[in-house]
Specification:
Length: 106
Amino acid sequence: MRYLMTTKPSETAPDERLYAEMAAFVEELTAAGVLLATGGLEPAGVRLVSSGGEITVTDGPFAEAKEAVAGFALVEVRSKEEAVELARRFRRIVGDGESVIQQVFS
């Protein structure tokens, strides 16, 4: 099962400890074959909205930047519970904030 794990921006500035712990976590998941992709996302982005056959394109940044997704990880695990546990480990490393887990259907 594949899951997309996303996280919203944090008010906490990263430090050397955070970088070291995240590097070790990413290395562990990569070695285990669980981590398929990971990355940070541009805060501004582009929004497309379709309505009645018309498509409107709006460049960011948007008013509610705190609601935007700041980063992601695509993982392949055996169960939803395993994905939740990986997300719990991630949140313990990065601290306060919000993440979302969604199953990816292929």
